[in-house]
Design a protein that fits this description.
Length: 64
């Protein structure tokens, strides 16, 4: 489990991944998506023996 200060949307392109959060878990297949709020703890797991790929959509990282 880890967090990030940026909100994210994960879109599964191929395969299957399970997203685990403090409130439960969701298994996503091709074209399924999930929104994760800023600082929301999550883990990403591929529980299959097949390759999986995801598109990650997030805002630009703020300049320091």
């Amino acid at each position: 489990m880890s967090t990030t200060p940026l909100e994210k949307v994960y879109v599964v392109v191929e395969g299957e991944v399970t997203i685990v959060t403090e409130s439960g878990e969701a298994t996503l297949g091709p074209l399924d998506s999930i929104y994760l709020a800023p600082n929301e703890a999550r883990a990403i797991e591929n529980r299959t023996n097949k390759a999986a790929s995801m598109l990650v959509v997030m805002p630009p990282v703020p300049a320091s």
